[in-house]
Amino acid sequence: MSLRAQIKAWRKTEQTIAIVPTMGNLHAGHLSLIKKAQTLADKVVVSIFVNPLQFDDQQDLHKYPRTLAADSEKLMQAGCDLLFTPDTALMYPQSIALQSVVHVPGMDDKLCGAQRPGHFDGVATVVTKLFNMVQPDLAVFGEKDYQQLLLVRKLVSDLNLPVKIVGAPTIREASDLAMSSRNQHLTATEKQQAAQLYASLQWLKQQLEAGEYDVNALLKQTRSQLTSSGFTVDYVAICRAEDLQAANPPEDKNLRLLAAGRLGSVRLIDNIGCSLA
Fold first, then answer.
1. Which of 60-64, 130-134, 196-200, 252-256 has the lowest mean pLDDT?
2. pLDDT tens digits for 229-248?
3. Cα gap 144→32, rounded to integer Å
4. Which helix or strand (DSSP H or E) is residue 61 part of?
5. Other CB atoms within 10 Å distance of the CB of residue 88
6. Residue 10 and residue 147: Cα distance in Å, rounded?
7. Is residue 176 part of a domain?
8. Over 80: is that where the pLDDT of 254 sits?
9. Nearest-CA neighbor of 104 among 152, 56, 149, 50?
10. Is 30 a catalytic residue?
């Protein structure tokens, strides 16, 4: 049965539908999103598509792990109702060069948007296409990619798409490293170093909650901690949680603390919430 036929059959019996978009190489973090979706909808669709439009580095695209057989087994065990695995020809039939692109202003000029030109246009475009194809009632995204989560929420609001966007907490390894498909590329030594990303954000949070509001000094110290641990730092930021604009504590109280950097060839990101209320 085709995707559209299955969606139509579910709609006939008034069942609600959730989508969990992924690029495969599934781990416990992805499975937690599926579990969340299952509590909110009658049927859960998981998509697996390594989206070339969101990769600014072609080498990164080519080495992204493709593990469809293992992913399918995990999804079966998790009780996924439908696995959707489109290929590039289906998603971009006129070629990537001729593809209409969805641009969400306000996200491409900061943090990961500034570090990865074109990345969020690729995300916005593929998410819009998946929403049009699956026509879900809701979609679940992980908070690990917090900037992406806000981008999708703005996309849905700006384009009046009838999809509820649900954020789910970051799932972490025993070391508190945020789970990511990229973690498998870390060496044993780099994995130990990688735990400092979360530890530095926790330190930053503790300073803010203790009443230290010299943003420039705090960011400098946090960057220094990461550099000393072996990171090449892309950014460390104290932002307003609602729009990722630079925060001015204590006037701004609902904060998001974000960091990104490289260990060897692997780029890692993380973020945590911080409330000064």
1. 60-64
2. 999 999 999 999 999 999 99
3. 12
4. helix 58-63
5. 14
6. 32
7. no
8. yes
9. 152
10. yes
What single letter denotes the amino acid at residue 57? D
Among 21, 49, 47, 54, smallest CA distance to 120 is for 54
The verdict on residue 203 lying in a domain is yes
Please name the residues in contact with 264: beta carbons below 8 A apart, sequence gap of 6 or more: 185, 186, 187, 190
Domain end residue (candidates: 168, 191, 217): 168
How confident is the model over 258-270, as pLDDT tens digits?
A: 999 999 989 999 9
Cβ(149)–Cβ(143) under 8 Å?
yes
Does residue 152 sit in the same domain as residue 214?
no
- 155 plus 250 within the same structural domain: no
In this structure, the answer to whether residues 117 and 231 fall within a common structural domain is: no
In a domain, 32, yes or no: yes
| pLDDT on residue 198 | 98
Flag whether pLDDT at 216 surpasses 90: yes
- Looking at the DSSP bridge assignments, the partners of residue 165 are 139
Structural domains of the chain, count? 2
Catalytic residue among 30, 103, 119, 185: 30
Q: What angle do CA 135, 138, 142 make, to 5 degrees?
A: 125
Nearest 5 degrees, angle CA 189-CA 194-CA 56?
110
221 phi, psi to nearest 5 deg = -65, -40
pTM: 0.95
The CATH number of residue 237's host domain is: 3.30.1300.10
CB-CB neighbours of 85 under 10 Å? 13
Task: Give yes or no: residues 148 and 92 share one domain.
Answer: yes
First to last CA, the chain: 52
Range of the domain at 243: 181-275
DSSP, collapsed to helix, strand or coil, labels residue 123 as: helix
| Token representation of residue 231 | 């990171």
Which helix H or strand E contains 20, and what residues bound it?
Answer: strand 17-22
pLDDT digits (tens, 9 = 90+) for 16-34: 999 999 999 999 999 999 9
